[in-house]
Amino acid sequence: MFSWNSLFATSLLLILSIVSLAADTLKLKDGTILEGKIVKETPESIQFEYNITKSIKDIKTIKRSDIKVIDKEEADEIALNEIKKILPTASLLTVEDYDKILEGKPAEFMANFKSSKLKPSVQDVIDQLLEEKAKVEANSVKIDGKWITSEEAQMDPYNHNALILATRLKASVSDRKYSLALTQFETLEKEFEFSTAYAASITTVLETLPKYEARLTQYKSNYDRLDIQREKDLKSMEKPDRDLAVKDFQRRQKRFEGLRQEAKENKERWTPVSEWNLPSIDENLDTVVKETERLGKLDISKAGTTAKMLAEAFHDLADNKLNSAQSKLDIAKTNGASGDVIKDLEGKIDAGKKAARAAAAEAAAKAENENPPTEGEDPKTGKIERKPSSPKKPKQATGNEKPAADPDAGQSAPESVTQDESGGMSFQTLLLILAGALLVVTIVAKVFLKSPEEKTQE
Question: How many domains are there within the chain?
């Protein structure tokens, strides 16, 4: 049953553990600097515990007359220094990760040092953590110190997802989880072969393979000794404990063999390895040799150029620069890029071009409906131009046709003159009417205006 005494004891132990972390510094008059912890103080001297080496400590009594400066580091300073190490945060943290961090050292500081003058500094750290948590809740991710919003990720989901996997690969290498890192690289290559993250990860893997080979070699050299030691340990146990240990070992090995068989059926390049299973060690050593040779032959520069062109094609598509996107995609294809990602990108570019053509046609039709052109108006430029009359069909010959006018005499009117230019009739017709009228007037004048000589003759 929980009691106040146990609560007090727990709190006291926590406070003492924090205080014990405090590091004090003594600067002696001869220039010596000692870092450690003050154990006991008297008016004349100080007992000081310090490290001779990382594992060996010593307690020394020092006269105050020999001490120039005593610098005591308080427990809250120690705690604050530990909290400051939280920032900058790692890549790809989840909301749960931030909650766990906030509930740890920052919360403990606020509970244990309520009157500390350092609380504002701790609050600054808490505020930054809360701000980052809010970004993650909004579907942003932090990778290598840079925040990527969900909108930015949607511009190029192919390279974004590849970058996430490559970031996890790098974290696995940093944690010396080489088997996991190589498995992640295998997935990266299968699913994102033409991504910028894959091209950049080739060098990382080439540097990791020798480290993994060294570990596997160590497993192999330790195998016989490990097996002998296990047999000795079993013999030293009582029968019931030995039976339980054997059963547990067999259960774990059976599970391991199942995972190994599953990896082989899935044709995975890297299979699980166990220091208790010699065949698995040998298999992975062979794979290290093959992968080192295969990756060493890759043209990393070409892979980088291909990935860059494909990434820029994605961004051009997002910016609706369709011709530029097509051009860069063509370069990537020339360099060997293929597969579903290429087909998908091609389909989106084609769809974008069709949509652009349809939008242009719709805009033109709408403009024509809103501003219909007048007779003779060019619908594109809006300028009024005289249109030539449609050519007349030639009439069949009857024998009464007048000879064609001589073009050099300047007597015939061009047929392209419209009715608008002659008040509703052609210029040729008007000439004919005037000629006929003149003929009639001439005849009438001759009849009624004869000279006396002509009348006498009659």
Answer: 4
